[in-house]
Structures are given as C-alpha cells and as structure tokens.
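Reviewers of the previous submission asked for a worked example of the structure-prediction workflow described in the proposal, so we include one complete record here. The input consisted solely of the amino acid sequence. No template or homolog information was supplied to the procedure at any stage.
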Amino acid sequence: MNRREAIRLLAAGATLPLAPGKLLYGLREARTLVSAQMTFRTLNPHQNATLKAMAEMIIPKTDTPGATDAGAVEFIELILTEWYDEADKNRFLSGIAETDARSQALFSKDFVDCTPTQQAEILSWLGEKMTEQADREPDHTSAASDQGESFYPMLRRLTLTAYYTSEAGATDELHFDIIPGHYDGCAGMNSNKEAAERQ
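From that input alone, the workflow returned the following structure tokens.
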C-alpha cells in the first residue's frame, strides 16, 4: 500500500462501521502511535495552537467530546510526519501560514488570538474557497487538482478522520459497536414464533 492510498483510506473515517478488518487494524495502530507520541516533530507550538483552535471549531465539544479531546492535532501531526510526502506537508503548513496572513489582514492578529466570531469568519472564507475550487474542478482532472488537495479540505478530512477513529468519536458519536448485538446460537427455528404465541 503506498502513502497516498493509505491517506485516502484514513479519510474514510466517517464510514468506519463499513471498513474492512485490515483498515480498522491500521487505524488502531495509528491511534496507538498517536497516544505514544509525546513530542511534535513537524508542527511548531504556534502551528499546534492554530490547528487546535481550527479543529475545535470544526468539531466543537458539546455533550460529546470535541476534536481536541479526541487528540485530533496529535493525529494530524503523526500523519504529517509519518505519511505525507514533502509536497503535501509543505502545502498543509503553507495553509496554516495563509490562514494567519488572512487573519492579520482582517483583524491585525493571528488566528489563535482572534475572537470566536472572527475565527468563524476566517473558517467561512476557507470553506468558500474550498467550494469554489470543487466547483471549478468537478471531475478532478485539471492541472490544479494534479498539484494536490488544498489546505482546508486536507484539514477537514484529517480532523474528521482523527475524531471518528478515536474511541470517543466512534463510541459516543457514531455509536459504533465492535461486538454487534445479541447472538443466540442455540435458538430453535420456532422459538420466536412460540414466544410470540405465549404473549
């Protein structure tokens, strides 16, 4: 399995209950690496703080855990360090810098220092850019799509994958049950009919 294929499979976090056993094993292994990893090797402290703020806006904490609680940024750090090639990694890191540049232009401060309302405005701008790009490239065959995915779709995909492959996301949000329902191996063929007649 090559790196791009693995990243594409990781993006399938929302379809976790339908995933084949090998994919589930791979995601569990990635989660183990995330929990064991203590230091950041790709992101600096400012980038880390920016991604935490952005991820928490994508999946905020409510009555269920948010993206930060699920370790989304640690997961993104692992993917950037271990799986992304240099071009994808540089495009992602440039996207963080572009977000701060937009924030400085609008509000004269970095994204992490903005109010939640200002941060939401910047994320809306990123979402509009993503939609415009998707509208221009519906078949993903243009030269721009050959250069790779832009920052915000990458961030959203990684955040969703990180969240929905975490224990909190899979159990609290998706209600994913690794061991499905009740199994009654000794039930006779007429046992349901007999139980219904007794009621």
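The radius of gyration is 21 Å. We consider this example representative of the routine output the project will generate in years two and three.
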